[in-house]
Amino acid sequence: MADRKNGGPPGRADEPPSKGDGRYGPSKSDTRLTSLEQRILESAIRGAVPRLVGASHTDLTTGPRVGEMPPEIDFHLHPELDPKARELPGTDKAITYRSALTEALVQADPRGHREMIEELQRSDLPMHTLAIQLFSPVAAHLGRLWCNDETDFIQVAVASTRLGMIVNHLSQNRSQTIRDRQKARRVLLARTQGALHTIGVSIVASCFRDMGWDVDGGADLELNDNLYMRLSNSSYSLLGISVGRVDEVDECAAAIRRVQSRRGLGPMKIAVGGPAVMKDPHAFGNIGADMVAKSALEVMHLADRMGA
After folding, report:
1. How many whole angstroms separate alpha carbon 268 and alpha carbon 220?
2. Which one, out of 22, 72, 251, 261, has a CA that is 20 to 30 A from the CA of 140?
3. 274 — alpha (psi -120 to 50), left (phi > 0) or beta?
4. CATH of the domain at 296
């Protein structure tokens, strides 16, 4: 488990997790809205009322305005609030699994974990939808519990391991793609030494595979000679680097400079992400990467654009 202060599991420590949210666990008898739920409701009302009024009084409007959600809304916990994420096939069905998945990950009986794998296999939902709408928000919720000391190290470690097993199992056993694999692009995924919380790498890998990409590397590939050897022996459209700690920014920048110095790599793009980028994205803004991704959803958007 990575150090919380330098890129541990995702989740902001300055805001407690939403209580009684049926998406992530059993609801409590208290029917009062949490502060997060109040902000979501307020945002929904603010967005809906102008559209309703405008539909009845077109003379009062000059055209639709696309507004952003309030910055307090955590899209890692609620990716469904992102308009692009809402377009993913099977989003509503994937959301319904959040509570059951969270319970299966934290309960002592391992049978729930195995049953969850079987249930998700039967669902036939696309892996990229599961990754964005189910696995990522559940991982973020676990991270928030850890950051707020609402669960212990052992429970989160077991839950993270189980989640990684589910992601890898489903990803490796799915043949469903949304692109022609004869035209598949190749991505190489690697991590810094401090990126010990590797579930994010597995989630991103599952997204790429489901979108028809050939995926090489992963949680076991660090920024060392093995990485440069693979880059020398094979061609890739994208190199993705997961950074575990903010203090690894210089190491990451040096690796990017070394990669870019290899003129034979062609038009390969470089994207950086991971717990450290989520914690302090501005620290990675000028290190030479083509994209700084704060979530698996942003990585998926990049892959979608490159695959177009």
Report:
1. 21
2. 251
3. left
4. 3.40.50.280
Asked if residues 96 and 112 have their Cβ atoms less than 8 Å apart, the reply is no
Last residue of a domain, one of 140, 173, 206: 173
Verify that 201 and 286 share a domain, yes or no.
yes
Q: Is residue 290 part of a domain?
A: yes
- Residue 262 structural domain: 181-306
Cβ contacts of 19 within 8 Å, gap of 6 or more: 28, 30, 34
Q: Is the pTM of this model over 0.70?
A: no
Tell me: do 89 and 107 sit in the same domain: yes
Over the stretch 112-165, which tens digit does the pLDDT of each residue have?
888 999 999 899 898 888 988 999 889 888 877 766 666 677 787 888 888 888
From the centroid of its chain, how far is CA 101?
16
The token pair at 46 is: 């603010």
Burial of 158 (C-beta count, 10 Å sphere; 0-12/13-18/19+): middle
20-45 burial, b for 16+ CB within 10 Å, e for fewer?
Answer: bbebbbeeeeeeeeeebeebbeebee
Say yes or no: 193 and 94 in one domain: no
